[in-house]
Amino acid sequence: MVITTIWVTRHGFRGNWNLDPVKGEYSTNVPSPTGIASDPALAAHGVHQAEQLATALLAIKDPPITRVYSSPFYRCLETLQPFVEKSGFEILGDNGIGEWYGIARFNHPSPAAPSLLNSFFPAYSLSYKPSIVPSTSGESPADLHDRCAYALTRIISHEEALDGQGTGRAILICTHAASMIAIGRALTGRLPEDICENDFKTYTCGISKFVRRSMPTDGPENVKPWSPGQKIPLLDWKNGKGVAGGWDCVVNCDCKHLDSGEERGWGFEDAETY
After folding, report:
1. Secondary structure letter of residue 205 according to DSSP
2. Binning pLDDT at 50, 70 and 90, where does residue 191 land?
């Protein structure tokens, strides 16, 4: 069924971690449920945000959310938990919309294994295969944008192949700050000259809405699957084109459903360097 709307949210207020950039070692004062230092659970405030987010998502009716895709990091899955418990949706974990780590001389952590994530979150799908997996040595901002563009195209293609013909479906994506910006740019096709331009907002548990402009002439199904070890496939999404026919941002990280409003915004000017 044709996807006409994509909703995007960022995970809730999370715990923190530390990184020794010389040794390339991550650490945390609060153990992560997955045992991965840079994969923290939500803070108590983030749990509260997730409950309020669920209420807002359940109220979406035109068109209703029909499937849920997420970064496979714990904080994103925990953010979605109240919503999927009440809606009955499964979570399709996709590394292609996962966290961004800059290029480094060491390996960055990867998400936990699907079997472990499913033990924490029974709604986490064990059958869905990620569209692409980022390099553990990190990515440039340009790589991140191309990775998200490719992942979105594959996700849309996967979604539309599931249910045949029809119109008016919507999907939900839960991701991270840098990826949320890249997703907005890949959908709209707008890549600013200054990567630090504050175009797409990234507040914790904020909600953005993208509406499709048109169907692509070649169809997203023509994009070949990525294979491990392969470079990020480059798609023609820039200069206002956007992926899969292009999308307009009609809601930019709205936070009216949150008691504390806009919090923890992030931009590429805040990115760490190693």
Report:
1. T
2. very high
